[in-house]
UniProtKB/TrEMBL annotation:
Gene3D superfamilies: MetI-like
Keyword Cell membrane: yes
Entry-linked NCBIfam families: phosphate_pstC (TIGR02138)
Its biological purpose: Part of the binding-protein-dependent transport system for phosphate; probably responsible for the translocation of the substrate across the membrane.
Region Disordered: start-end pairs: 1-29
Major location (coarse): membrane
Family: Belongs to the binding-protein-dependent transport system permease family. CysTW subfamily.
PANTHER family the UniProt entry points to: PHOSPHATE TRANSPORT SYSTEM PERMEASE PROTEIN PST, PHOSPHATE TRANSPORT SYSTEM PERMEASE PROTEIN PSTC
Pfam families in alphabetical order: BPD_transp_1
UniProtKB keywords: Cell membrane, Membrane, Phosphate transport, Transmembrane, Transmembrane helix, Transport
Protein name as annotated: Phosphate transport system permease protein
Presence of the UniProt keyword Nucleus in the record: no
Cell location: Cell membrane
Gene from which the chain derives: pstC
Amino acid sequence: MTTTDSPQLPATPKGPPSRATARRRRSGDTERGFSRVFRWIATGAGALILATLAAVALFLLLRAWPAITASEEELSSAVGRYPEGTSLLEFIGPLIFGTLLAAVLALALATPVAMGIGLFISHYAPRRLAQVLGYLVDLLAAIPSVVYGLWGFLVLAPVVKPVWFWLGDNFGWFPLFAGDVSATGKVLATVSVVLAVMILPIITAVSREVFLQTPKLHEEAALALGATRWEMVRTAVLPFGRSGVISAAMLGLGRALGETMAVLMIISPGFLVYSLQILAGAQHQTIAAYIALDFAEATGLAVNALIATGLALFLITMAVNMIARAIVARRKEFSGAN
């Protein structure tokens, strides 16, 4: 029997490592040290966000607790707008309703337009024109809320009055357009249009970036199979970007829920009314606008009542974001992003 000798590996030289080896070791140790530091910083930043959120929730709860536990008589004597025989929930309920109604209408107006602008910039417009439009959309997000409020109060409200009267005359049978149309134009419908313009750049910017991340192979495969440009967008781009568009819409909804000055400067406030008549005056009010309107003159228990309404807005915002995260997580596996 013959045996084949295995090749001998060169012996590892003994002694101190070379300069290159020592340099590589020091570099590896430094990189591992930087990785640990970055991990600690990232962990601390995440913990800081959670701690800040918990601190805000605790502050709101503690400051709102006197109003939550107060009797109806105490609240009615402390809060000027508070009617007798009304619980705190009955008082906050119409404010919540007005806030949600204005935000949902603004989202319904802004989302289709934002998706169209995002698709045009990402897949239809020439490159130079797309860059200019992208800059203009981003510039809209930098306009202060007060400017939007002035524009809605001085420019938009007079312009849309004939439109609201036409809707009231021709579609008065529909609950949203029923009732007496306000002659000033300062109604929830005008507020919804202004809020839609305000959240438009947020939804557009996020949707545009999501559409641009669609894999080129998916688009080219659809075109190679004979699809038109719109069929390619419908079968490849929109399914891929569905979860991103939902996230963008929820970001815009959060901005609309918390908007204060634009709403305060335009709407004619109404209290303790659950009304779908968005063309009628003095029917609605939002939580943020109500707090801004009354906080300067509030004292004692009235401040606690205002903070209680702020707590309600905080909980609504948290619920909206949790629902959005659940929708995105459920749709992500069907979007093609994986």
